[in-house]
Amino acid sequence: MTEAVSNLLEVKGLTVRYGGGPVVRAVSMAVQSGTVAALLGSNGAGKSSTLRAIAGLEPALGSVHFDGQDVSRLSSSQRFRAGIVYVPEGRAIVTDLTVAENLTLGSYFVDALTRSRRRQMVLEFFPEIATRLKTPAGLLSGGEQQMLAIGRGLMSGPRLLLLDEPSLGLAPLLVARVYERLALIQKEQKLTALLVEQSFHAAAKLAVRAWVMRHGEIAGELQAGDLLSREGRQKAINAYLGERREEVQNA
Ligand SMILES: Nc1ncnc2c1ncn2[C@@H]1O[C@H](COP(=O)(O)OP(=O)(O)OP(=O)(O)O)[C@@H](O)[C@H]1O
Ligand SMILES: [Mg+2]
User: Fold this and answer.
1) Pocket flag, ligand 1, residue 18 (CB < 6 Å)
2) What's this model's pTM, rounded to 2 decimal places?
3) Is residue 166 a contact partner of residue 195, using CB atoms and an 8 Å limit?
4) Residue 182 and residue 160: Cα distance in Å, rounded?
């Protein structure tokens, strides 16, 4: 009973299809309030489709409960207003607009005071972009663009942040920096997030729970201890590889 209350997000039997067979099959997971969970898996596993379905951006079967309410029939904009904020993969920012304008886009519906408070908070977390407010976003480095994309998400005041591959296309040093900041935001803002990653290593720094997806299904589940241990890492690799794992382990 208590567990049900502390789960901010509960997904049951989520199934997504794009015309053909399902690319997400009966996925169930739950994210506790104030924690970060991760969805791992290789290319095409169905991670983004799962995240997009939770945000209401793809039609899906199954149920999505947010803070105890069934939001399965709500549109993406209604879910957004409820506090479910999706940050797409590939640094989705508007390259022609300045950094400041991109941040404003994230807080379009809030009053000026809230907007300025949130902007202050975002710029404290990401000082790299604080000094570039008037720069067109397209001129930022990859890492800075990712920080801006996350910052724009934070400007909406998310209760649940859905982060799609924040490490995509970034050099290892920048991945580390982005994750360092996310950890700080998590700690200070008690952020609840569901993070999609291909990299176990990156996700393990932040997440206290993770699921590995393969061919649209949950192939493995990892708890906090697994994310920090060698055995857990092997467990994740096994789940990634599925039936081929015997060959790889013996290789
Ligand atoms: N809009 C779409 N129309 C048709 N098929 C799609 C669409 N989006 C994704 N797919 C297919 O659904 C499957 C899952 O894709 P998805 O993008 O969810 O995977 P992913 O795990 O996020 O992969 P990646 O790590 O490459 O981002 C893939 O086979 C993909 O080709
Ligand atoms: Mg994806």
Assistant:
1) yes
2) 0.91
3) yes
4) 14
